[in-house]
Amino acid sequence: xxxxxxxxxxxxxxxxxxxxxxxxxxxxxxxxxxxxxxxxxxxxxxxxxxxxxxxxxxxxxxxxxxxxxxxxxxxxxxxxxxxxxxxxxxxxxxxxxxxxxxxxxxxxxxxxxxxxxxxxxxxxxxxxxxxxxxxxxxxxxxxxxxxxxxxxxxxxxxxxxxxxxxxxxxxxxxxxxxxxxxxxxxxxxxxxxxxxxxxxxxxxxxxxxxxxxxxxxxxxxxxxxxxxxxxxxxxxxxxxxxxxxxxxxxxxxxxxxxxxxxxxxxxxxxxxxxxxxxxxxxxxxxxxxxxxxxxxxxxxxxxxxxxxxxxxxxxxxxxxxxxxxxxxxxxxxxxxxxxxxxxxxxxxxxxxxxxxxxxxxxxxxxxxxxxxxxxxxxxxxxxxxxxxxxxxxxxxxxxxxxxx
Length: 404
Ligand SMILES: *Cc1c(COP(=O)(O)O)cnc(C)c1O
Fold this sequence. Notes:
Layout: H1 7-13, E1 31-32, H2 43-60, H3 63-67, H4 72-85, E2 92-94, H5 98-116, E3 122-126, H6 131-144, E4 147-151, H7 161-167, E5 172-178, H8 190-199, E6 203-207, H9 219-222, E7 226-229, E8 244-247, H10 249-252, H11 291-307, H12 309-330, E9 335-336, E10 348-352, H13 356-365, E11 368-369, E12 371-373, E13 377-381, H14 389-403
Parallel strand pairs: 1-11, 3-4, 3-5, 5-6, 6-7
Antiparallel strand pairs: 2-8, 7-8, 9-10, 10-13, 12-13
Helix pairs in contact: 1-14, 2-11, 4-11, 5-6, 12-14, 13-14
Bound molecules: pyridoxal-5'-phosphate.
Pyridoxal-5'-phosphate (PLP) is lined by residues 97-99, 130, 132-133, 178, 182, 207, 209-210, 230, 243.
């Protein structure tokens, strides 16, 4: 191997190496490169979920709602805000899916913008934004008579400050951006892009699905308006675990979300004739939230808090840098479809080759699990607490073999 450091030495020097044993299945030989699509279960979540079913659900029954579950969307939201999002309490709520949050917050934002300034009829969004974000924006534009202003991006990179400056103006109601691009891992300069949108008088919605839990997010310091993200990727809440929504305190009283349900009512159990929104972030909740996924997510949040998000990001940079180094040294036929600068790269690396679709299928048969993203992208997701450098080395060696 022509790389400077061995995987064993990197693992031995990794201050977070011990966390890997605290995930279900991490001891097996399987190489998991898809923790950015579905994180491994945290071992502590097994007991926590069993205990929840037996004692809280099974023992407390309907009383559970009064005792804890009614408040869990906001108490867990506060924990998530503190540990992962750089958000002060009272601005984050957990429930629904990312797609539903995108609909609620985009609609709330564009309605607010048009109400305060009739000329603001455009949503600015990039062509490589995650599909669901683009589809929801398309639907809202059709529903409200708005136009989409597309930023054309390089699929190996992402939206730059210059591109955004060119796209926004007096017509912009809302800008919708991914913090980390799902395909290339481009890490947007969120503080700078938020400032550019604000200078043009627009609101910004950040999609944090590919950054929450792997990259430090600083919503309050960015002066962010709105954000959404899911919990089954780097937050290990399990398949279908609920998403979160963030609304900056200063906007909460101004925005009206479109799915006004009983759980966002000022007094849900009054069950009265008309809708009166709750104060604060609660008004952005709609209906009964999925509690089981939140219980699993709590176990991961505890690990993230123990390790610290800055240390997690440092390991993430080391893992992706090692993957790039190995790819450069051993996969000459492949091109890097992610930023080379680690400061501009999130928690995954995409390698391009025209045969990657069949390579991915062959790797899955051999218990090496990356993801395939068209066109020709092999996506290597490296969840920092559950992935070792040895796993990266074995995985890249398997890619080299599959390509031969
Ligand atoms: C994974 C992901 C989603 C997923 O949305 P769901 O409603 O959970 O299916 C949305 N946006 C981005 C950027 C994602 O990476």
